[in-house]
Design a protein that fits this description.
The chain is α/β, with parallel strands linked by helices. It has two domains: about 230 residues, P-loop containing nucleotide triphosphate hydrolases (Rossmann fold), CATH 3.40.50; about 270 residues, Rossmann fold (3-Layer(aba) Sandwich), CATH 3.40.50.300. It contains 18 helices and 15 strands. It has an eight-stranded parallel sheet with strand order 1-8-2-7-6-3-5-4, sandwiched between helices. Strands 11-12-10-13-14-9-15 form a seven-stranded parallel sheet, sandwiched between helices. Helix 3 packs across helix 4 and helix 6 crosses helix 8. Its EC number is 3.6.4.13. ATP-binding RNA helicase involved in the biogenesis of 60S ribosomal subunits and is required for the normal formation of 25S and 5.8S rRNAs. InterPro entries: DEAD/DEAH_box_helicase_dom (IPR011545), DEAD_box_RNA_helicase (IPR050079), Helicase_ATP-bd (IPR014001), Helicase_C-like (IPR001650), P-loop_NTPase (IPR027417), RNA_helicase_DEAD_Q_motif (IPR014014). Belongs to the DEAD box helicase family. DDX56/DBP9 subfamily.
Length: about 600
């Protein structure tokens, strides 16, 4: 192995690849140009990949040549296939030449369990026509050591794991890395940000020297530079993060409003279907997600929740069903948001409550110990704003603005993927409106205007504009009394009870899902629903219907001053069911008549007389 090239600071130098296309080359590239195994090409064709994306065009040839690669590309650009195809090709080539020793060939490290599940599914799809040669194991779940040893006893070719689970199995001798040839870090910057520093340092000391390393990320940060120094040998840098700014299909809007008006505008938006298609609503904390879900239930708006308290099986099932269009709205709590040290941290509702209780008790007596609150355990390996492939998301709503411009970029990356249209709408609380409505206030909103200034500056550098979304508040105010009625029913006690109730339900569903899919691994039918009502303390049936007198004479589009908004993925089907068939009962009249009595339509023959 050759020595690494050092720069003037005695640091490994980096070759920067030329990502500019040759104007003379007019032929559109195909996956066949990479000289991949026919079985991989067949799998690629079955996935309906038309042509390699820019990151795949650059990264796959370099990885096939055995070079270390650090690649930056936007979310949804095809980074997963860009590193998986070379890894699978290398394994198949060695096995065909009988040059591969039995044992682990590739270790793929990811920051979250959801991403581990997603990467495993992509591997299975790309290796669908060579399953006898490629064995993959996912080690992201907290299972007993005996189970992990049983999974690894057959010497899999690829292991997908979080750094903590990979190191645990290496230490207990369940996972051998002696034959390792490939190491991949997906969402590399996030791996360190999630606190895996010590785990990665330990893993680096156990793996063989000189193996091929691939680092994939949506951003190039100090974390990626740290990982480069730990794992890479003279890597090639591919920076394709901003190549698609000219053809960007994401539209960004911001609304400055009072704290309670977040609930008002969101209610009007979804109840009157100003936005169509699927959407993800990001909130600050777990409590906040249940408060918004209970608020939606008052108006008959169905939604499901994603947070770190829910069992991993339930979370994975929610994402799967969302991608299959079973659910349209996901309320995601981004409590594991990555925050730089110089910026104020975002505290969840629970932490705020504990600090408040402690401060109150310190006034009564310094020696009085603060009462400890029992908190539900949260999954540290949970992440929803990065990595997960949410498909066909038409809108991302930052119900609670993130605390950094970096987190904002990750959130809006859930939409406008793969050249599809998308929209991001963010609510911002002006300084003079902060703490004006205490029941709906969150501490992080104090810095919304400062964060918005950083977001606007960051997006401007990329040639993007954050536009104001003007609701006509004179028209919207007619819905305000309904919003107040609903908020009064969503009390702190109701939120706490709903939180406990759903956690209990999801634990039962998680075990049911686990047993079902163990017995039926290919079964993808709808098994359980996650958008069931949690029932607030007080429900009012009349809120689920919008009377005509509340709507402006010009129609619901008059609620917004500018003619912008929804990004539909599905066509409206008035009077039709989910499969497009009209609901017309036998005997129904045009314009809607009384349904026929089924008992009167029965025709029977009298018994024959003997």
């Amino acid at each position: 192995m050759g020595k690494r090239k050092l720069d003037e600071n005695d640091a490994p130098s980096v070759e920067v690849a030329d990502t500019k296309a040759n104007p003379s080359e007019t032929k559109e590239p195909t996956f066949a140009d990479f000289d991949l195994d026919p079985r991989l090409l067949q799998a690629v064709a079955s996935q309906r990949f038309k042509a390699p994306t820019p990151i795949q065009q650059k990264a796959i040839p370099l990885a096939l040549d055995g070079k270390d690669v650090i690649a930056r590309a936007r979310t949804g650009s095809g980074k997963t296939a860009a590193y998986l195809l070379p890894v699978l090709q290398s394994i198949l080539k060695k096995k065909s030449q009988k040059a591969a020793l039995p044992g682990l060939a590739a270790l793929i490290l990811v920051p979250t369990r959801e991403l581990a599940q997603q990467v495993t599914k992509v591997i299975e799809s790309l290796a669908a026509y060579c399953t006898k040669e490629i064995q993959v194991v996912k080690l992201s779940d907290n299972v007993p050591d005996q189970v992990s040893k049983a999974l690894l006893s057959n010497a899999p070719d690829i292991v997908v794991a979080t750094p903590a689970r990979a190191l645990h199995n290496i230490k207990n001798a369940s996972l051998s890395v002696e034959q390792l040839t490939h190491l991949v870090l997906d969402e590399a910057d996030l791996v360190l940000s999630y606190g895996y520093d010590d785990d990665l340092q330990s893993i680096a000391g156990t793996i063989p020297k000189g193996i091929q390393t691939i680092l994939m990320s949506a951003t190039l940060t100090a974390e990626v530079d740290t990982l480069k120094g730990i794992f890479c040998r003279n890597p090639t840098l591919l920076d394709l993060g901003d190549e698609d700014t000219a053809t960007n299909t994401l539209t960004q809007f911001v609304v400055k409003c009072a704290e309670d008006e977040k609930f008002l505008l969101t209610y009007v938006t979804y109840k009157l279907q100003l936005f169509k298609g699927k959407s993800i609503i990001f909130v600050q904390s777990v409590d906040r997600s249940y408060r918004l879900k209970l608020f939606f239930e008052q108006f008959g708006i169905r939604s499901c929740i994603l947070n770190s308290e829910l069992p991993v099986n339930s979370r994975l099932h929610v994402v799967s069903e969302f991608n299959r269009n079973v659910y349209d709205i996901i309320i995601a709590s981004d409590e594991n948001e990555v925050i730089p040290d110089e910026e104020s941290p975002r505290d969840g509702d629970d932490e705020q409550a504990e600090e408040g209780d402690g401060a109150a008790k310190s006034k009564k007596g310094e020696n009085a110990p603060p009462k400890k609150k029992r908190k539900a355990s949260k999954d540290k390996e949970y992440g929803v704003s990065r990595g997960i492939d949410f498909r066909n998301v038409s809108c991302v709503i930052n119900f609670d603005l993130p605390t950094t411009a970096k987190s904002y970029e990750h959130r809006i990356g859930r939409t406008a993927r793969a050249s599809q249209n998308g929209m991001a709408l963010s609510f911002v609380i002006p300084k003079d409106q902060y703490r004006k409505h205490m029941p709906t206030s969150v501490e992080s909103a104090e810095h919304d205007e400062k964060v918005l200034a950083k977001i606007t500056k960051q997006q401007a550098k990329k040639g993007r504009e954050v536009k104001p979304y003007a609701f006509d508040m004179k028209q919207v105010n007619s819905f305000r009394y309904r919003m107040n009625d609903a908020l009064r029913a969503v009390t702190t006690v109701a939120v706490r009870e709903a939180r406990v109730r759903e956690l209990r339900q999801e634990l039962a569903k998680s075990e049911k899902l686990k047993r079902h899919f163990e017995e039926n691994p290919q079964e993808l039918s709808h098994l359980v629903r996650h958008d069931t009502e949690l029932r607030a303390a007080r429900t009012q049936a009349h809120l689920k219907h919008v009377p005509d007198y509340l709507l402006p004479a010009e129609g619901k589009k008059a609620l917004t001053a500018n003619d912008v908004g929804f990004v539909p993925f599905r066509k409206d089907r008035e009077g039709k069911g989910r499969r497009g068939r009209s609901f017309k009962g036998r005997g129904s009249k045009a314009g809607g008549g009384r349904k026929s009595n089924p008992l009167k339509t029965l025709r029977g023959r009298p018994r024959s007389k003997k």
